[in-house]
Amino acid sequence: MKIGISALPFNLKEALDICEKNKKIDHIEVGLDNLEDVGVLKKYKSKIEDLNLSISIHLPMELNTCENINYIRNSWIDFICKIDEALTQDFDIKYYNLHLGYVMTNSLDRNRQKYLKNTVEFLNDSKLNQKLNGRILSIENTYSKKGDFSNVGDRVEDFNYIFNNIINDGVYFCYDTGHELMSKNDYNEVFDKTKIIHFSDNDGVNDLHLGYKKGILNDKIFDKIEKINPDYLILEIDFKDIEYTLNYF
Hints:
By secondary structure, the protein is an alpha/beta fold. It has 11 helices and 10 strands.
């Protein structure tokens, strides 16, 4: 199991300094929201190589696999393909992580399966899969607060539907501990499809990205981690909490 931390372009230098100081960290997951962000990441290529870090990409929160307007949904596929084309000249990207997306709450409540079918079409897209050429797409559980819009992927049934209907065998589950605290579910049913864990703590109400023991996450999480035995465990937490949280691993 590789232990990693998450970073964004603006704090990537700080993240790499942390990786240099703590040899337990051998992976970095970088959030990229724009094609221009690839240029920022490339500036740190030699540093990433010197630290012998593997790398993955967290795609934008705005990405919407269940978008009902085909043109817009396809534009997100084009975005991923362009990001991948720009990155793979310089990096061996281990996986792309994404949230499933969001729908107007009333529409989602009326016909959830319709939007899950959109996600299945997105993940099965031949252009996307040809471009990624076997690289992993990880789909992450999230949470909903039931405003005008709700997130898809806040319950295990969504992922059961997806894994039962996709033909792309390069799609896996990313289990986010903090998100489960906010939308309680039993994700045991998809642990056999889990390769990535996002580890964080919170108060059960807000996605605070706290270090372990600073919220309500209890010791049972380590039984789940042992059961899953993920390829990557990403500390998706405040940088100041990384050092002491690593003591539990």
